[in-house]
Model the fold of this input.
Amino acid sequence: MTQAQRRRRVLIVEDEPALRLSYQRAFQPRYDLAFASTGEEALEQLAQHRFDVAVLDMRLPDTDGVELLRRIRLTLPDLPVLITTAYMSIEPQLKVLNLPHSGYIVKPFRLDELGARIDAIS
Done:
């Protein structure tokens, strides 16, 4: 199977069950999905499996997304990470902290927009 034929493996880090279900319904036919609802679950998934892209919500019950992104960058500096956030002001914070990412998308957004962003960065 060529790279073009292989389905992308996408880790979605999202604590809202309704959003996880929406992502699963929209993207299961398109990607190999894995989900984490906390930062700790995300780090476990990333340690155990290889992903092509991570979609990271900035608000999680056990950590904030900035700290989680910092921890991801320590072990996976090249993993494309797409940030979902309700806050338009996240970009300056990430730049000041020098945390590389592959872009962000502000909630609420359409699922096809998220899919297009995933496709564009992976």
Summary: The mean pLDDT is 89. Helices lie at 17-27, 39-48, 65-75, 90-96, 111-121.
